[in-house]
What we know:
By secondary structure, the chain is an alpha+beta fold. The protein has helices at 13-27, 34-44, 47-56, 101-115, 130-138; strands spanning 3-7, 60-66, 69-78, 84-92, 120-126, 142-152, 155-165.
Amino acid sequence: xxxxxxxxxxxxxxxxxxxxxxxxxxxxxxxxxxxxxxxxxxxxxxxxxxxxxxxxxxxxxxxxxxxxxxxxxxxxxxxxxxxxxxxxxxxxxxxxxxxxxxxxxxxxxxxxxxxxxxxxxxxxxxxxxxxxxxxxxxxxxxxxxxxxxxxxxxxxxxxxxxxxxxxxxxxx
Length: 172
Ligand SMILES: CC(C)(COP(=O)(O)OP(=O)(O)OC[C@H]1O[C@@H](n2cnc3c(N)ncnc32)[C@H](O)[C@@H]1OP(=O)(O)O)[C@@H](O)C(=O)NCCC(=O)NCCS
């Protein structure tokens, strides 16, 4: 079995969108409505949006390949404040949850934060997404605050902001 993390390329975008759609439609119906899932996918997972992010040089998308097949991905972007990196996306194919792949991508994001000299890595997670919250807690994140976002069309993101301080010297 081979496992590899590599930067996402433009040619990976169709496979990534298919993977994201599959994960969202399997995972989120117990958390948000199917209408909200479709609305959020349409905002975030189009070739135009992802392609523009890749070309901007201000977002870092990574794919995790299991025997050459993309089974998970993450994306980071500069945080709101100096010295912060935001983990904007972290998704693992649903039949592979609980095998450490999410934690692997989290450690990869932490390493990126360290290399960029960031002192803090943070993310947003739906308050009802218990499995993901558990994963972040197990990886040393803690809940900083609750945050509600009006994303239009009557949809609300009801999130926790979770964060982790990054050791700049020693890896972990
Ligand atoms: C959240 C997610 C990225 C975590 O990735 P993963 O590969 O499943 O997580 P890991 O295998 O690295 O698990 C990390 C820890 O969290 C725990 N965990 C994972 N899912 C859990 C769940 N549903 N309930 C309780 N604990 C859970 C694991 O037990 C593990 O702890 P351990 O190593 O001490 O046993 C993945 O489950 C996922 O893609 N979920 C659906 C999409 C999603 O919610 N993404 C996050 C958006 S903010």
